[in-house]
Amino acid sequence: MADPGTMLSVVSLTFQVFSGCIQGYQLIADAQHMPSDCQYLRVRLKTEQYRLLDWAHVVQLDEQDDNLLISNSSKGLLLDVLDQQRKLLAQFGRLDDKYKKLTRPLLVDEVETNGVLPDPPAYSPTETSPTIKRVDSDFHNRFPQSEALLKKSLDWARKSKTYPRRLKWAIFDKTKMETLVLKLTSFNDFMREMLNATQLQTLAVKQTRTEFQIMQLNSSVGQLVQIFESAALTMKTQKRGGRFPTNPVHAFLQARGLEDEEENDLPKPGMQNLATLAQIKALNSAIEDPNLFTDEFTTSMKLAHTASEIRSVELCRRDITLLDEESEDGESQRVEAFYQPPKSRKTSVWIEWKTYEPPTFQNSGPDPKIHQRVKALTTLLKENNRTDQFRAPHCLGYFRDIDEESGEDHCRFGLVFEKPASAHPSTRPISLHSLLTEVSETPSLTERIQLATRLSETIERLHAVNWLHKGLRSANILFFSDCGIDGIDFNLPYISGFDYSRPAMNDDMTEKPPENAASDIYRHPRVQGSGNRDSIGGVGGFKKSHDLYALGVILLEIAYWKPIDKILGIEDLNNARPSVTIKVRQRLLDEKEGFLRFVRSYLGNTVEGVVRTCLRGPESFGLSEGADEKSEDIGAELQKMFYERVVRELGDMRV
């Protein structure tokens, strides 16, 4: 057996110190008996650990420095920064500045009753799994565990025998823990500034995907509140002129105790994206449950209004003036209108209709569950106005379309959307479907790849917070151009038509989409029409992979620059029978039909592979056909693989 000293000598000093940092994070995060109301600090500690891991991936940090993507002149500084971070973690709560044990330590070694702690499994570089790996700790279940670098670092640190096996809190000091977290944040901020422009862009992409993974692995409202509070810690400190700056040089010096000067010019907090994702997902999960959606919830998530105010999204029908009638070609149910509440200016808007079954003798209005769903959907869309996370148009509210004079119920809700600030009030939305149908000149390959990339990124972000669209089709992809078709920016699409969207964890199947060939042609065969649905129990219902299938159909349309019915040779789509739409997926994947072969010939192997992946579904993402996409493990794996096999493939294309 190799001597431990010999084994350590072949590992670079940079990796040894880095592994010490990772182990330090792990020990404090694993420490037992942290108060429940301070769990957000534990979450923030893990978030900073993953920021460091993401950074290490970008610079290709490994056991040897041969591939380290840091200039030689900066390697000494890097080692110093890592060592300062390692010392900070190693000493915290146990040792003083002279490495002597504190008389009243915050953290002490924990030993099991028999005096032995079992060894965790060693890192295996050949170990592979189709799903995200988890460790035994319930807390660590909330963070991705498939990182080879994480396992490798912890395995090396354990072999070095210089760290305790496990810690527990003897005394918990919230202020000192906050100080530790903010100092670690400063170190990570400083290390970020050591990267060049290309590396910074790569790091931003890597961190975004890590955040999406964290979102998938945290489903309960309580967990999401902790994530939001952990991200808000930096914002709270900055607002009160905290001691921890965001300027990287000051950050490094202050973290080492060499600089006390405060900054005056504070940029936006780096954790804002994670906080916003947690906000939207928590709202998505709680909005239809009055026991969860309370004033206490809105306060904890720093929402601007009370629960009842946020739910108050119904508009008065008399304040809406319709300017034209909806088209009858089945392409959309979208009309122009003005919205002018009392004592307010007139706003140019458009209305998207959502129909419901006519009232029965027992009921005087829509099914209460459907009404509740429309209200919840409108609330989500309206809250998104503040963040613009999902390329969705700004929603002002909804109304029931009842004629005030005759009292006639038109059996539909109208969702009211505001024009983008960049568009003139008279500018009407232009749908992708209308461009595919009416525009004879095909946009450049560059523009089509840009559009495909933006759409896939938007769906990725929606699914990160478990928000399913359920109505994806080219008629619901919108553009705004004051110069007409010639001025369209294909890099700025809006996704509308959220008529049937709902949170992925909700199994309520009361409302089913109507039989409509123009919609069904984009739907997976399992969710077409009102009858051919997955079972209500178990893992049935609409799935993320069904949204991805619809995206695949849209990407095929973009490749051909034709609507899907024209590609398939369906002459009268509005009157097409279900037997026609049910075979669409089979036809698109049939090599004899040659649809994907056309894409490969004219747009290349990458685009063809992306379209095929979306159309095939779970098996293309490494999952079984019947996988429960609502489970955290499967959801995280699908999120990860969709990025790798669709979003990244399109984003890396250079035309």
Automatic annotation (TrEMBL):
Q: What GO terms are given for molecular function?
A: ATP binding; protein kinase activity
Q: Which domain of life is it from?
A: Eukaryota
Q: Residue ranges of the Protein kinase domain?
A: 320-655
The family database entries (PROSITE patterns) matched by this protein are listed as: PROTEIN_KINASE_DOM (PS50011)
What PANTHER family does the database record attribute to this sequence? HELO DOMAIN-CONTAINING PROTEIN-RELATED, PRION-INHIBITION AND PROPAGATION HELO DOMAIN-CONTAINING PROTEIN
What is the name of this protein? Protein kinase domain-containing protein
